[in-house]
């Protein structure tokens, strides 16, 4: 096989491997981000629950203030009872007292209802906090695992990058420029094998003459359809 073609195949394989490292790292990070998203969602629920509890407590305080005002009003009505001079004033005062008592009853019922809501929200808050603690423990464990995996990936990437750099030290500059022009648009498929007499970049069948030249591997051959660099893979014993 042509030496330049051999070098191109090696370089293309190195570039393909290097291109896969970043997705591998992102995949590892995504494992952690899933847990982080769940934790953030729980934190948001906790903040909402705190706000709901504060709102309930605020409503309870307002009801307590209103209840105190109503009790003061009843005391004022009781005092006015001694000053009544006619039946009309008596009926008006009795109606006012009846309304005040109904309002007191409603305020007491509302306070009981708000206390029940507050208790339920406090219980919900405890459950969310416990759930958050579990998620944060999981995040710590996953982070250790993810960091270790990323470290191994980076070590492997550095090794491949070093091997690629060593290959480029002896690489023909014109051939490299030629390869880089194709790679700008073909990405990791700049150099592809021919299988079943078809380019495995564009999957178009090549003619017999081109295929014969690819098999000989004496020159660098481009696909007549897409322009990618072609090579014939070595047959395995099984294929032979």
Protein described:
- Helix 1 (3-81) runs antiparallel to helix 2 (87-169).
- This protein is 77% helix and 5% strand.
- The protein folds into two domains: 16-169, Helix Hairpins (Orthogonal Bundle), CATH 1.10.287.1490; 173-232, no CATH class.
- The model is unreliable at 236-240 (pLDDT under 50).
- The radius of gyration is 40 Å and the shape is rod-shaped.
- Strands 2-1-4-3 form a four-stranded mixed sheet.
- It is mostly helical.
- The protein contains four helices and four strands.
Which features does this protein show?
240 residues; mainly alpha; Helix Hairpins; 5% strand; rod-shaped; disordered C terminus; Zf-RING_7; Oxidative_Scav/Glycosyltrans; coiled coil; CT398_CC_hairpin
């Amino acid at each position: 096989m042509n030496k330049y073609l051999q070098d191109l195949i090696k370089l293309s394989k190195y570039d393909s491997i290097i291109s896969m490292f970043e997705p591998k790292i992102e995949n590892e990070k995504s494992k952690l981000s899933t847990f982080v998203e769940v934790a953030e969602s729980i934190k948001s629920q906790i903040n909402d629950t705190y706000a709901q509890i504060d709102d309930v407590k605020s409503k309870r305080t307002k009801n307590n203030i209103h209840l105190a005002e109503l009790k003061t009003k009843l005391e004022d009505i009781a005092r006015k009872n001694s000053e009544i001079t006619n039946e009309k004033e008596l009926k008006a005062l009795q109606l006012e007292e009846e309304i005040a008592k109904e309002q007191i009853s409603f305020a007491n019922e509302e306070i009981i209802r708000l206390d029940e809501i507050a208790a339920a929200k406090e219980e919900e808050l405890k459950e969310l906090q416990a759930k958050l603690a579990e998620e944060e423990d999981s995040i710590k464990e996953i982070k250790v695992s993810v960091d270790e995996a990323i470290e191994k990936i980076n070590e492997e990437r550095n090794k491949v990058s070093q091997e690629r750099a060593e290959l480029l030290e002896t690489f023909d500059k014109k051939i490299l420029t030629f390869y880089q022009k194709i790679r700008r648009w073909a990405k990791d498929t700049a150099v592809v094998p021919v299988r079943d007499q078809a380019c495995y970049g564009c999957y178009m069948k090549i003619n017999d003459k081109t295929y014969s030249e690819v098999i000989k591997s004496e020159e660098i051959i481009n696909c007549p359809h897409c322009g990618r660099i072609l090579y014939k893979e070595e047959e395995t014993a099984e294929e032979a």
